[in-house]
Amino acid sequence: MRWCAGGLAGLAALLLAGMIVPVWPVASESGEPGEAGEAQHRILLVASAIHTDIALPATPEMRRSFAFLAEAGLPIGRTDVAHIVVGWGGRSFYLETPTLADIRLQPLVRSLTLDRSVVHVELTGAIDPAADGVVALDIGNGELMALAGFVEASLARGADGAPIAISGAGYGAFDRFFEGTSAFNALAGCNVWTARALGAAGISAGLWTPLPMMLFWSLDLHG
Question: In the chain, which ranges are continuous DSSP H helix?
Answer without folding.
Answer: 2-20, 60-65, 91-96, 105-112, 141-153, 190-200, 212-222
